[in-house]
Specification:
With 394 residues, the protein is an alpha+beta fold. The protein contains 10 helices and 10 strands. Strand 9 and strand 10 form a beta hairpin. Helix 7 packs antiparallel against helix 8.
Length: 394
C-alpha cells in the first residue's frame, strides 16, 4: 500500500478520506521542519491554540459540546494523529492529550462537567491532562495510592503524587484517579476533575525526556474538590480509565504509524540520492530488502491500527485485545523501521537535528506509555487463552 492506500479499505467512509486529505494539507503547511523549541511548554501551548483554531480539536469531543461529530470517532482521531506525528511529535501529543485528558468527561461526566470543560477543550482555550500514573503505579493501575476522602456531603479531599503527567504544569485541568476505597485494587478507584488552580495542587518537578515534551510530577496535598467534580460514580474510575484508553490506545499505534511512515519516506529519499562505490544506495539489494521489510511492517501496522479503530467505532463494545495488538505491533515495528532508516543515513542519521534522529528519540516512549509492550502482550495472551478455554468448554 502507498501512503494513503489504506484509506481505500472498507474500514473508512468518505468523510474519513476527506479528513485525511485536509489534515495532511494543514500539517504540510503549518508544521515545517525546524529546530526543537527552546521552550517546550510555550510551544505546546501554541500548538494547542493552533490545533483548536484549525478545528482539529473538535474531533476530541462530541458535537453537543463543540465537537465535529456526534460522538468520539476513533478512526478520525487516528487519522489526525498519524498526520500530525508524520510532521511533529509535539503536535501529535498536544492533540492526543486534549482527547485523552477530557475523554473521561466525554464518556462519563455529568452534563454540567461536559458543558463546562468540553467546549473549551475543542476550542483549544483549555489544556487537558490525564493523571493516572504514580511513582509505583504505571501499568499496574491497581497500585494507585492517591486517596480521595469524603469531606462533608459535597466535597472530597485528595492527597497523593502523580508522575509522568503529560501537560503537567501547563494544563488548565487534570482528570485525576484516586482511591475512594469501595473495594481492593482497581475496583476502589474514582475519577475527579481537578482544576490547575486548586489549592494544594503543585508541580513538584519537570521531567526531562529524550524527546522534549511537557511532562511533570505533581503533588496533591489536601486538595478539596467539590463532589460535583467527580466523573461517574464512586468506584467506577478503573472502568472509566479503560473505556478512555480503548478509544485512545489505537491512536498511539496511529502516531507510531506516522513516525514510521516519515522514516520510510526519508530513507527512500536518501537511498535515491546517496552515492556509494559508483552507484546510488538504492541500487544495492540490501537496501531494497530493507525497504521491503519496512514497507511490509508499515502496512501490517496500518491494518491492525485501523481494524481496532473500526471495531471500536462500529461495534461499540470493548476492543481491549485489538487495541493492545495494534499498539504492541505498531510501536515495535516503528522502532525497527526508524532504526533501519537511521542505518540508511549512516553517520548523518545520528546527527542532532536530522528528521530520522528526531524520530529515533520520539518513538521510544510510545513503546512504554499507555501500557508498555509487555503489558499489551499479556492482555492479548490472557484474552486469547480465556476465549479459547470458554469456546472449548461448550
Amino acid at each position: 500500500m502507498g501512503a494513503t492506500a489504506h484509506l481505500d479499505l472498507p474500514f473508512f467512509e468518505a468523510p474519513h478520506r476527506d479528513l485525511a486529505m485536509r489534515v495532511k494539507a494543514w500539517t504540510t503547511e503549518q508544521l515545517a521542519d525546524g529546530p526543537e523549541p527552546a521552550d517546550v511548554d510555550a510551544e505546546s501551548k501554541r500548538l494547542v491554540e493552533a490545533l483548536g483554531g484549525a478545528g482539529w480539536l473538535k474531533y476530541c469531543v462530541p458535537a453537543d459540546y463543540g465537537g465535529a461529530l456526534p460522538e468520539l470517532d476513533t478512526r478520525s482521531i487516528c487519522i489526525i494523529r498519524e498526520a500530525l506525528a508524520y510532521r511533529s511529535g509535539l503536535a501529535d501529543s498536544s492533540f492526543a492529550l486534549q482527547g485523552l485528558g477530557s475523554g473521561a468527561i466525554s464518556l462519563a461526566g455529568s452534563e454540567a462537567l461536559r458543558r463546562d470543560y468540553l467546549p473549551r477543550v475543542a476550542a483549544g482555550s483549555a489544556i487537558a491532562a490525564f493523571a493516572l500514573s504514580e511513582p509505583d503505579a504505571g501499568s499496574d493501575v491497581g497500585a494507585v495510592a492517591a486517596t480521595a476522602r469524603r469531606d462533608g456531603e459535597d466535597a472530597y479531599t485528595i492527597d497523593g503524587v502523580k508522575t509522568w503527567i503529560t501537560n503537567g504544569g501547563i494544563a488548565h485541568f487534570y482528570v485525576v484517579f484516586a482511591r475512594t476505597g469501595e473495594a481492593a485494587g482497581s475496583r476502589g478507584l474514582s475519577a475527579f476533575v481537578v482544576d490547575a488552580d486548586t489549592q494544594g495542587l503543585t508541580v513538584d518537578a519537570k521531567i526531562d525526556v529524550i524527546a522534549p515534551h511537557p511532562i511533570a510530577t505533581m503533588r496533591l496535598r489536601g486538595c478539596r474538590v467539590p463532589a460535583a467534580q467527580r466523573v461517574g460514580d464512586e468506584g467506577e474510575g478503573f472502568k472509566i480509565a479503560m473505556r478512555t484508553l480503548d478509544i485512545f490506545r489505537p491512536s498511539v499505534a496511529a502516531a507510531a504509524l506516522g513516525f514510521a511512515r516519515r522514516a520510510l519516506d526519508e530513507a527512500m529519499m536518501r537511498a535515491l540520492e546517496r552515492r556509494m562505490f559508483g552507484e546510488i544506495l538504492a541500487d544495492f539489494q540490501l537496501t531494497q530488502a530493507a525497504v521491503g521489510d519496512m514497507a511490509a511492517a508499515l502496512d501490517a501496522s496500518a491494518l491492525l491500527t485501523y481494524r481496532a479503530a473500526w471495531l471500536r467505532d462500529t461495534q461499540k463494545g470493548r476492543i481491549t485485545k485489538e487495541a493492545a495488538m495494534a499498539k504492541m505491533f505498531s510501536t515495535e515495528a516503528a522502532q525497527k523501521i526508524i532504526d533501519r532508516a537511521v542505518q540508511v543515513f549512516g553517520g548523518l542519521g545520528v546527527t542532532r537535528g536530522t528528521p530520522v534522529e528526531r524520530l529515533y528519540r520520539e518513538i521510544r516512549a510510545l513503546r512504554i506509555y499507555e501500557g508498555a509492550t509487555e503489558v499489551q502482550q499479556l492482555i492479548v495472551g490472557r484474552q486469547m487463552l480465556n476465549d479459547y478455554a470458554a469456546e472449548h468448554r461448550r
